[in-house]
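note to self: dont lose this again. the chain is below, predicted strucutre after it. 504 aa total, dont forget to put it in the shared folder this time
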Amino acid sequence: MNSKILSLNLLRKKLINNKKKKVLCHGVFDLIHLGHIRHLEAAKKRAEILIVNLTPDKFIKKGPNRPYFTLEQRLESIASLKCVDYVTWNNLESASDVILNLKPNFYCKGQDYKKIKEDVTGKIKTEINAIKKVKGKIIFTDDIVFSSTQLINDNFKLLNNDQQIIIERVKKKYSLKDLNTFFEKIKKLKVGVIGELIIDIYAFGEALGKSGKEPIMMIKNINEEKYLGGTGAIANHLSTFVQKIDLFAMIGEKKEYFNFIKNNLKKNISSNFYLKNKSPTIIKKRYLDHVTNNKIIGFYTINDDSIEKKYEINLLNKISKNLNKNKINIVSDYGHGMITEKVKKIINSNRNFVAINTQVNAANTATFNLKKYHKVDLVMINEKELRNELRNNSENINVLIRKLSNVIKSKYMVITRGTKGAIMYNFKKNKFFTCPAFATKVLDRVGSGDSMLAILSVFLYLTKDEELSLLIGSIVAAEKVQNIGNKYIVEKKNILKILSHLLN
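---
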C-alpha cells in the first residue's frame, strides 16, 4: 500500500506535533477527473500539507453499483497524485470526526457546495460546525466543475435497461425540485401504524462441528444483536419522512422488553401498547454464521392466540378514533393475534387511506387469509403469497393479480418479486405498473417489505403516481437489504441523495 495512505488514528498520531499548516479535502472520488485534480491543487496552495479523506463504500448513496471503485482503489488513486500528502478514511458519512481529530487550518470544498441550503444530507452544516470548533476556516475552490456521477452515468452502464426506462419516465414528469416539494409535504402527514411489534434477535456464532455425544451441530456463540422489528421497525423507518406517527402495537403481558422498545423508538413516535394475556413479546431469533452472515436456524417465541377481549375493547376504541384522525394508516398483519375479526372490520370500514401488509411466515402458513381484507386502499404481498392464496403456481402473474383483485377489490395491489422487482395494479384503471429491483447488495431481506410499504404508501397517497411511488419504494427496499435486520433505519436524506444522483 502507498505510504501516503494511513488510518485516521495513525495519521492523527503522525501529525500531532506537526506545526505546518494543513488543509483537508473530503469526498467520494469515485472517478478522478480534471475537476478533482484542479480542486486538490487549489487546496494545496492554501497550506503546506494536503490531506484527503474518503467516504467508505457503505456510506455512499448514489444508486445501484455505486461506488464503481472500491475504497481501496479510490485510496490508491488519490495517493498517486503529486499534490496530495496523505490519504485517509473515516467511519462516518461526513468528515466532521476527521476535522475534530486532525484539526486542519482549512477545510476545502468545491464551489458546488456553496449552496448549503441545497444539501439534503445536512453534512456540510456539521462539517462547518466542526471546522469552527477547531478554529479553522472553510474555503471553496472556484474552478471548472465536473460531476463524477454524470460522467459515470454517461460512460459506464450501471443501470440495466428496465432501471433506465423507469428513471427516464420519472425524469420526464418531475424535477428534483418537484421531489423535494413532495418530501416536504409528506412531512406534514399524520400516519398511524397498527400491528404486532417484534423483537428481532441476531445471534452470531461459529460452527464447531458435530457433537461427540449427540448427532447435533455445535455452535460457539460470538455475540448477539437485537433490533425492533414488525410495526416498531415500520414506525422507525417512517420517522425521518413524517413528523408525527401514532403506533398501535401489541406486546407481551410481562413487558420484558418494554424499556428496550421505548428506548429504540424514535422521538416523534407516539406509542400505544396493548398487552397480550399470558403471552411474551414476540421474539424472532435467528442464528447466523459470524463470517458469512448466512442464517443457520431460527427460533420464534410467540403465542398466536387472539388478543384478550378486555384488551381488544380498548384497542378497538383507540384504533377507531385514530384511523379517522390519521390521513394514512399502515397495518401489518403478521398473523400473531392482534388483528382480530373486530379489528379487521374497523380497518375495512375506514374512509381514510389504509395500506395493508399481510404475510405468510413460519407461524401462520396454515391460517393465512388475504381475502379477509376488503376494499382497502393498498394491499402488498409477495409473489409466493399471491400464488399460495390462489393455489396456482403456474399461471401468468398478471392474471392472478386480476383474480385476487376482483375478490378483495383494493384500489391498489403491490406484488414484490425479489430480484424481478415489483408490480402495482390499479383496480379501477385495470392497469399494471412495473419497477425493477434496485438492490445490488443483499445482506438481509427481513423487513424489506415493511420499509417499502411504509414509504411507498405515503408517496402514493400524496402523489397518486404509481410509477414514482414504486420507484421510491424499490429504492427504499434496496437501502434496507444492505443491512442486517433493522440495525439502521432507512433515512429520508439518503433516499433524496440517491434520487438526486439517479435523476441527475
